[in-house]
């Protein structure tokens, strides 16, 4: 079950780079190009959300669970959650939304997935830089950021988002039932991931149940970078890294096995 | 040259297995355009997609030692959310062609006017086909795979296509699936008849057509 193309071997890698670049441009023109303001909206979306949450919660409560700034508390919680969820969503639908372009033999499902993930990762980087850069103006004194923890948490959130998205690329195609169950099961994820609260404030045994959710760990790790006094001892780094690697690897294997099916299914 | 090496491909139809091709070995020679004939549902389009490399054999392999186009036809390789121009740019990029030259050529060739800069989802099937043909013919392939070109439009445009194939692309070959015997005659010199999982090659397209029409009667 193999097929070879012409010219063989030598330029295969170059072709992939060219195709991924072309797909990235195509994603930019349709995802951000049609709306007024284009790319601006991708950035405004999380900014508006964090702003709104800060206003709502600061009016019902005096201080956030840690620190003094509501804005910083929700920004750290929401952005790490958003990195994972948006990347997972974007990656899982990449093949579906580029279906017609898979008619070109040089375009493979891998290219579609890679292009979309790459664009999303760049967008996330810009969004995070703008949000934290902007907050540094409003919040005084702005805490000194621990970059090792920030990098660690961001890489794990990105890896897990990409891995889950990659897995779902194939799994959604194999089973419509699974897709519905996954979507429904993930709906409350936002509420139970610790965007609004700290797991430290939840009584046992509920706290232990909550810690089965890897996003709780990601958010805890992310907050550690901004709150020097917050240790977040519950964060299991090894488990998160294994999950990110494991899901990406499993996703790649599934795509290798079912990639042909993805392309052939109408 | 394109070579099919012991290729099998089947699908399940109402509980039992139906073969499109069963253990078929066949070399598609250069220098002659080939018409694929077979009854409805015999799997002509799937065979063409396997030759292109976007459908895969269950066993055996397809060896391509030539530049083979994507299958052109109304199945639609164009992305609906992109404009005609953006689609052309995409194709230029993935096939490593000079973008601006390709855009200029296709804009003139496809005769879409202002629609060239509107989303393809607003196009009629004839407009899509004109765009798809315009682009594919401006990228140099050894084999052009064509799946039903009946939707391509008026006589004027058909003549334009034929002109390009006969002059500019004189050293390229066509592999074509069509329900129209007339179209096949116009473009193809040799023929292949697909029947019950077997491929039969005829050097003369008229022979292939005769066998095919005989198959259809029985």
TrEMBL record, chain A:
Subcellular location per the Swiss-Prot or TrEMBL entry: Cell inner membrane
Q: Which family does it belong to?
A: Belongs to the ABC-2 integral membrane protein family.
GO biological processes: lipopolysaccharide transport
Source organism's superkingdom? Bacteria
- Key word Nucleus present: no
One Pfam family recorded for the sequence: ABC2_membrane
For this protein, the record's PANTHER family field holds: INNER MEMBRANE TRANSPORT PERMEASE, TRANSPORT PERMEASE PROTEIN
The UniProt entry's GO CC annotations, sorted and at most eight, read: ATP-binding cassette (ABC) transporter complex
Q: What is this protein called?
A: ABC transporter permease
Recorded hits in InterPro entries, A to Z, give: ABC2_TM, ABC_2_transport
Q: Where are the transmembrane segments?
A: 38-57, 69-87, 117-140, 147-168, 180-198, 239-258
Q: What is its main location?
A: membrane
Which keywords does this chain's UniProt record carry? Cell membrane, Membrane, Transmembrane, Transmembrane helix, Transport
Which residue numbers delimit the ABC-2 type transporter transmembrane domain?
Answer: 20-227
Taxonomy of origin reads: Bacteria, Pseudomonadati, Pseudomonadota, Alphaproteobacteria, Hyphomicrobiales
Instruction: Give one GO molecular function term.
Output: ABC-type transporter activity
Topology relative to the lipid bilayer, per the entry, is: Multi-pass membrane protein
Signal peptide bounds: none
UniProtKB/TrEMBL annotation, chain B:
For this UniProt record, the keywords arranged alphabetically read as follows: ATP-binding, Nucleotide-binding, Transport
**Gene Ontology molecular function terms on file:** ABC-type transporter activity; ATP binding; ATP hydrolysis activity
Domain of life assignment:
Bacteria
Q: Which Gene Ontology cellular-component terms appear in the entry? A: membrane
Matches recorded under SUPFAM superfamilies: P-loop containing nucleoside triphosphate hydrolases
Q: Which residues form the ABC transporter domain?
A: 2-218
- SMART domains, per the entry: AAA
Cited InterPro entries = AAA+_ATPase, ABC_transporter-like_ATP-bd, ABC_transporter-like_CS, ABC_transpr_TagH-like, Bact_Polysacc_Export_ATP-bd, P-loop_NTPase
- State a single Pfam family of this protein: ABC_tran
Secretion signal, residue range per the UniProt entry: none
Family, as annotated: Belongs to the ABC transporter superfamily.
Record protein name field: ABC transporter ATP-binding protein
Q: Give the organism the record lists.
A: Stappia albiluteola
